[in-house]
Amino acid sequence: MTQKLLVYQSLWAMERRRPDGHEWDLQEKLRMIRDAGFDGAGVRFAEHNYAAEVTQFLRDHDMTWQAQAYPQTIDDLKPILEHVVKFGADHLNVQPDVRPYTVQECLPLIAGWRELAAQAGVRMHIETHRNRMTTEMFFTLHLLDAIPDLRLTGDLSHYVVGREFWYPISPEDDAMMQRIINQCWGFHGRVASREQIQLQLSFPQHQHWVAVFMDWWRRGFVQWRKKAGPDETFTFLCELGPPEYAITGADGYELSDRWEESLWMKDQIRALWQSVLKS
């Protein structure tokens, strides 16, 4: 067995939210993801029938998926885990939909979720995300002080915006981000600047930020390969979100083609992984 990278596409990122109201239906989205060569998809597991339909399609086409959940209490995770046990998943990605004031308030929740996941035999990661338990980088670093073995899914864009990182990245900011990266067992992928959560990947004026994120993701691959087992997988979810994540013009239409950018990101991430394997 060898360590493996899985590149997924977010189904949330397949929402268009155009002024004309035109949306791809679910089966069309899934066929697009399959035909584009993604390894699978990020799937919200709150609704049984939705999870069943999506995972059946992916399974039928030898694809995999990550389950996503947004619990507010310990018990909120129980039905999600039942779905994961029933339908399967590479792992469960949790965005804790709570905003405690102190780290001590977080500890019983995380302990409860981890215990439930362990009992179900499900791998679980906690995602870094604004307006969640991990909303603020300093707070998340304090969480890591309290729970050193906490496994994160790193959506690094939120901390670039949340702490308004200057470019070039200072050694102090980079060191904090490196500590987050060192705990990452997966990434959610978008590129941010200090003032905007989602930059257009192809625009020339954004390439310095694209390079920053590519370097962080490369470093994430490197640190993970050193500590992960020989048969484990690292997941990278392309997650270029719809408006208002995506910036729109006065006509309400996006300034770039997010689907094409997702395809570009998929190819770049796979190339980045291969460069790490060869280094």
Residue fraction in strands: 5-15%
Count of alpha/pi helices: 9
Query: The biggest beta sheet, please?
Result: 8 strands, parallel, barrel
Annotated CATH homologous superfamily: Divalent-metal-dependent TIM barrel enzymes
Distance N terminus to C terminus? 20 Å
Question: So, CATH architecture?
Answer: Alpha-Beta Barrel
Count of folded domains: 1
Read across the widest sheet, the strand sequence of neighbours is 1-2-3-4-5-6-7-8
* Mean model confidence by pLDDT: 97
Q: Give the CA-based shape.
A: globular
CATH class identity: Alpha Beta
CATH topology: TIM Barrel
The SSE string, one letter per element, is EHEHEHEHEHEHHEHEH
Helical fraction:
40-55%
Radius of gyration: 18 Å
Per DSSP E runs of 2 or more residues, the count of β-strands stands at 8
Features:
9 helices; 44% helix; 8-stranded parallel β-barrel; TIM Barrel; globular; alpha/beta; 279 residues
Structure description:
This protein is an alpha/beta fold and 279 residues long. It is built from nine helices and eight strands. Strands 1-2-3-4-5-6-7-8 form an eight-stranded parallel beta barrel, surrounded by seven helices. Helix 3 (77-87) runs parallel beside helix 4 (103-120) and helix 8 (207-227) packs across helix 9.
